[in-house]
Amino acid sequence: MPADAPGPEPSPEPPGGAEPSRPPLTDAQKSLRAQMLATEHWSLLASRSTTQSEVLTRIAIFLTLVSAGLVTLGVLGNATAFSGWFGVAALGVLFLLVLLGLITQIRVFNTATEDLVYVLAMNRLRAAYVDLDPGIERYFMMGTTDDGTGIDRTYYAFAVRSRTQILGSSMMLILLVHSALVGLFTGALLFALTASVGLAIGIGLAVVLIVFVGWMSWGYRGYRQVLRLHEPLRRATDQPGG
């Protein structure tokens, strides 16, 4: 009986490595590597899909609770003529919504970071496919480099990635809602303490802006941190014409 095909050789060193290049892989070795890479690729896709589905469900639940909370305040206001214990109830409902928004906001930003890592991992796998068969690279629309250029191409393959993608994202939606809730709660609390409408509105708007900018800065720092900690195996500048 013919002997089994030898297993895969260790991957060759990147350009500039100390080890000399090894003999080319056999077809059997390439086939086995492709199967292992495809298994990992499907695992990443499943994890990414599950994460996105979970966070979208969390956002939907939060928005439903916000809607229900505001409707409840309207009903209570009509029942109490916006006097008596209505103020305490309103502050309690708004405070609960702010806490739920905080938890949801943290999860949304963490998910954005996780999604970035999934994109980097899948770009690295596409680079491995290209190593096995360089001729297939021109058929990939997504990025084949695990660097900033590859990330942008995967997120938006048809043009230069712009700020409109961020402005239209679920992350921006939840950030606006949460910032508005924090400002509304702050304004309501100040009005309850000072009975000054102008002060409540002014401070409330300032808090909305501060919370919005603070969260955006925090999210951007998380994005940059991933790129600082990640060391690409393949960069766009390493490719011909890069």
TrEMBL record:
Full protein name: ABC transporter ATP-binding protein
Disordered: annotated segments: 1-26
Transmembrane segments: 55-76, 82-103, 171-193, 199-218
Species lineage: Bacteria, Bacillati, Actinomycetota, Actinomycetes, Micrococcales
Domain of life: Bacteria
Amino acid composition bias (Pro residues), ranges on this chain: 1-23
Keywords on record: Membrane, Transmembrane, Transmembrane helix
